[in-house]
Design goal:
By secondary structure, this protein is α+β, with helices and mostly antiparallel strands. Helices cover about 15% and strands about 30% of the residues. The longest helix has 23 residues. Bound molecules: copper (II) ion and zinc ion. Zinc ion binds next to loops.
Length: about 180
């Protein structure tokens, strides 16, 4: 009787493979909602990534963040370990560029424009990125490639030119983007 569950193993494997095949077959994700956490692990809202044209658009709906202008980027690892979020790595940079829209050697695929948090600590803002796709993870510039990426909000604004991160200060919120 003890070996009975073994009979189920091939069936389970078949089911998993079928699901994987279906998932790959349907290919691209068109939308991804990411939960953002601050350095203390508190929920500070969401970033909803949608495919737009040949890139993506990111709808930020955040709360409990310091008022003012903040940098937001895609970073290379889908890993948001508090409190410093260093685990997210550098900016997502499949094209091996330098940082910043105003940098002659720039810019990283993960670079985006700053957004502003209101005095009450909230923001509803839309930023875009023409250099990345959601895709299915097989494209080099897919946010889902190599296990995924992260979206990171910084303490300060991005100056759009200082390598490697626009002099944007601490990482104050992070959300993993996983396949
Ligand atoms: Cu960043
Ligand atoms: Zn950058």
């Amino acid at each position: 009787m003890k070996d009975k569950p073994l009979y189920r193993v091939p069936a389970v494997i078949a089911l998993v493979l079928t699901c994987a095949a279906v998932a790959l077959g349907t290919g691209k994700s068109a939308k991804k909602t990411v939960e953002l956490k601050d350095a203390k692990g508190n929920d500070v809202g969401t970033a909803t990534i949608v495919s737009k044209g040949t890139g993506v658009e990111v709808k930020l709906d955040v709360k409990n963040l310091p008022a003012g202008e903040h940098a937001v980027h895609f970073h290379q690892n889908a890993k948001c370990d508090p409190p410093d979020f260093k685990s997210a790595g550098g900016h997502f940079n499949p094209g091996s560029k330098k940082h910043g829209f105003d940098n002659p050697e720039g810019h990283h695929a993960g670079d985006m424009r700053n957004f502003t948090v209101k005095e009450n600590g909230t923001a509803k803002a839309t930023v875009s990125d023409a250099d990345v796709v959601l895709g299915n993870g097989s494209e080099p510039n897919s946010l889902l490639a190599n296990g995924g990426t992260a979206i990171v909000i910084h303490a300060k604004a991005d100056d759009y030119k200082t390598d490697p991160s626009g002099n944007s200060g601490d990482r104050i919120a992070c959300g993993a983007i996983t396949p």
